[in-house]
Design brief:
By secondary structure, the chain is of the alpha+beta class. Helix content is 49%, strand content 19%. It is built from six helices and four strands. It has helices at 39-52, 56-67, 75-86, 92-99, 117-126, 130-153; strands at residues 9-19, 25-35, 100-106, 112-113. It has a four-stranded antiparallel β-sheet with strand order 1-2-3-4. α1 crosses α3 and α4 (92-99) crosses α6 (130-153).
Length: 163
């Protein structure tokens, strides 16, 4: 059975900053529409994002901890860590291919910049940092979603789960 709780994609604000005339910063504001991922897709994407932060030295240190006879990792923790170590890092381009489905940006004359995969590639090449701004739009939206949960979790009230 399929239940529809929300649309298959969501809009999020995107701000792209670049160096303007006379060394003054310039901001281009728009919004991007991202695919609403299934739980398994989001977890796989999160794992690849975590893999981006695992430097070779950090991977060696984690592996050393896993192999230590005195390590106190549970079987589940060990499985998760092993999966993180095995995950392939993701590039911004791959991230956008998996998530970006539309945008709402205008050029200097106020004309809409039409969304198409070729336009994404062209603008990301022409505007250094634009690709990262599009990724940040997604990650900022996800972080904003977590903030109320973190506030509730860290509040001084009694736990509803009894723990």
């Amino acid at each position: 059975m399929t239940v529809v709780l929300a649309s298959v994609a969501f809009w999020a604000p995107v701000t792209y900053r670049l160096l303007g005339d006379d060394g003054q910063p310039e901001e281009i504001k728009g919004r991007a529409r991202y695919k609403r991922l299934k739980t398994s897709e989001r977890r796989a994407l999160d794992r690849r994002l975590r893999a981006n932060r695992l430097t070779p030295d950090l991977r060696v240190a984690i592996r050393k901890q896993l192999d230590d006879q005195d390590s106190v990792f549970t079987a589940r923790e060990r499985t998760e860590i092993e999966a993180d170590l095995a995950a392939e890092p993701i590039t911004d381009e791959q991230f956008l291919e998996a998530t970006l489905v539309d945008w709402d940006f205008k050029d200097k004359t106020g004309q809409a910049i039409m969304y198409a995969p070729a336009a994404v590639r062209e603008l990301c090449e022409d505007w250094d940092g634009f690709e990262a701004a599009l990724v940040r739009g997604y990650t900022d939206a996800q972080q904003a979603l977590l903030k109320p949960q973190e506030l509730e979790k860290n509040s001084g009230g009694p736990s509803t789960t009894g723990s």
